[in-house]
Specification:
heterodimer, A: 277 residues, mainly alpha, 12 helices, globular, B: mainly alpha, two-stranded antiparallel ribbon, 4 strands
Chain lengths: 277, 294
């Protein structure tokens, strides 16, 4: 039993060890990273990628695990990010207190928002009170299992996901040195949705991988398209291909069609097929 | 009083645009259960189709004539794009609702990025016919003429769609499909062909909305469709998904509430009050989320 647990933790430990060693690697990886691996540009890019991966993971708690298609996750990330920035700069709080304040308010926000959703859903059920009563009459245990517990689980998922998202927002603000209105937009939430599906919804590594790759592609595809191998194409095609979101959007559609379980699901399928032959 | 009349007419004009944007969305959701995020891309396509048509036609023609041509082109482009999207992207994913939504999200992302690559992210000025840019005195208020045009167009589209839904065989199938799709399929009616037609119709209406919105704003930009789409979603949810009358009422309510709050409270309160209206409707009439009669 214990060996199984430590085996499961092994990939995480290896990834962590590799990441911790990166600041001591003075090698250049042309094309992939800007400058040396331990240069400020590369480390900042990797750090932002990892933060976004974490935020994607927090969205996965809501969407991937529970299947709630939330379009307001940016709220919690923005709350964490802006509360931290404001409590640091406007209220001059020390960092630990600022983090506590941001997390506390974000949790409260999640409870309120989740609570409103909860009330709406409960009202929805009440509006069919007759059916509900009949269900309780026929099989009380099943009605409880089907009805009320699921809402509590969903509320829990929203709160946990929101708190993690707020934490992500806090780290995001720390890494970028401030808050950016971009994290408040609907596009940001949609980007999170895309990350989670790209990597594989409902899988921890999937959401992390999706978030990392999405941000990396968003930041680096512009450089790659300027690398010169597109020069033979007409100008319009070049301009379109130099839009990272165009390539990501297209890639996303392809993934939805051909690998609905995301990149990690695809990887798992290939591994299983390799073993079978 | 003059302010009030102006705000009223502007709110109605905006409501008309919201209705045009939301009508296709509402019928598509009611019939197919697809939350179409690509609707913003349809609107963008309409606005750029109109913009390019007006630029391509000889300047010797009057602006109004070129705008009329632009409207025709936008309607056709919207219908073609709606048709292609339904057949190529949505059709293979029937019965996978989440995947259908995801594909439309990817499509909207990619198409906005493509438009940015081709025409640039900055807003471009559109030509406005002289009549639409001028004003009419009514009840002591100077009212911009374009508002009246929007209201008339939206009314025409509303009446046309109502006639289609209630007096044609296609409309009968759509209404029946919104009510109970499985039953319609069981009766041996080809609902899939109806889906394609509804998508093409929705695309047309969205393209028209996009074009008229660019006339209202005076510019075209890739992000315009997305910002209109958010209001369209709100209108669809308030009005009850799949209900055309509900969509029309909700569009007018959202347009009026937004403009009145922006003027009488403070600029920016309008958007907030629209969201509050949405929350109120959801709390008091939660069934509007579940769809209603077309």
């Amino acid at each position: 039993m214990r060996t199984a647990v430590s085996l499961k933790a092994l990939p995480a430990i290896i990834v962590l060890a590799v990441l911790a060693y990166l600041p001591y690697v003075p090698i250049e990886v042309p094309g992939l990273l800007p400058g040396r691996v331990n240069g400020p540009g590369s480390l900042q890019l990797l750090a932002t990628c990892l933060v976004i991966a974490g935020i994607a993971l927090s969205y996965d708690v809501i969407f991937g695990r529970t299947g709630l298609l939330s379009f307001g996750h940016a709220l919690f990330v923005a709350a964490g990010s802006y509360l931290l920035t404001i409590s640091l700069s406007n209220w001059a709080l020390p960092l630990p207190v600022a983090i506590l304040v941001s997390l506390g308010v974000t949790t409260l926000l999640a409870l309120v928002v989740g609570g409103i959703a909860f009330v709406v859903v409960t009202l929805l059920v009440r509006s069919r009170a007759g059916h509900a009563m009949a269900a309780v009459r026929e099989n009380e245990a099943r009605a409880a299992v089907l009805g009320f517990d699921t809402y509590r689980v969903k509320l829990l998922a929203i709160v946990v996901g929101a708190v993690l998202g707020g934490l992500g927002g806090i780290v995001h603000a720390l890494v970028l040195g401030g808050s950016n209105p971009h994290v408040t937009t609907t596009e940001f939430t949609l980007a999170l949705l895309i990350m989670v599906v790209l990597g594989g919804a409902g899988s921890m590594w999937g959401a992390l991988l999706g978030g990392f790759l999405y941000h990396y592609a968003d930041a680096r595809l512009v450089e790659l398209s300027g690398a010169g191998f597109l020069d033979a194409l007409p100008d319009v095609v070049q301009q379109v291909l130099s839009e990272p979101l165009f390539i990501l959007g297209l890639f996303f559609i392809i993934i939805v069609y051909f690998a609905p379980a995301g990149l990690t699901g695809l990887g798992g399928r290939l591994i299983r097929r390799g073993r079978a032959t | 009083m003059t302010d009030f009349v102006l705000i009223l007419v502007t709110g109605l004009g905006l409501g008309a645009l919201y209705f045009l944007a939301a009508s296709g969305l509402s019928i598509i959701y009611g019939l197919m259960g697809v939350l179409n995020f690509a609707h913003g891309a349809f609107m963008m396509a309409g606005s750029y189709a109109g913009f390019l048509t007006m630029g391509a036609l000889p300047a010797s023609l009057s602006v109004a004539a070129r705008l009329a041509m632009a409207v025709l082109v936008a309607l056709v482009v919207g219908a073609v794009i709606g048709f292609v999207v339904e057949v190529v992207l949505i059709r293979p994913l029937y019965r996978h609702h989440i995947q259908q939504v995801l594909v439309t999200v990817g499509l909207s992302l990619a198409s906005v990025a493509a438009a940015q690559g081709i025409w640039g992210a900055d807003p471009r000025t559109v030509e406005k016919p002289e009549w639409m840019a001028s004003t009419t005195m009514l009840l002591g208020a100077r009212l911009p003429n374009d508002r009246f045009l929007f209201i008339v167009v939206a009314l025409a589209v509303f009446l046309g769609l109502q006639a289609l839904l209630h007096y044609t065989r296609l409309g009968l199938i759509i209404r029946a499909g919104v009510e109970n799709r499985t039953m319609v399929e069981a009766l041996g009616i080809n609902v899939h062909r109806t889906f394609t037609i509804v998508f093409a119709l929705g695309g047309s209406a969205a393209a028209l909305a996009g074009l008229l919105y660019s006339q209202y704003a005076g510019t075209v930009s890739p992000a315009q469709g997305g910002s209109l789409l958010i209001y369209a979603f709100i209108v669809v949810v308030i009005g009850g998904m799949g209900s055309l009358v509900g969509t029309a009422v909700a569009a007018v309510a959202v347009g009026l509430v937004q403009q009145l709050a922006n003027f009488y409270a403070a600029s920016g309160v309008g958007d907030l009050s629209v969201v509050l209206l949405l929350a109120l409707v959801l709390l008091l009439r939660p069934t509007s989320m579940k769809g209603a009669h077309a």
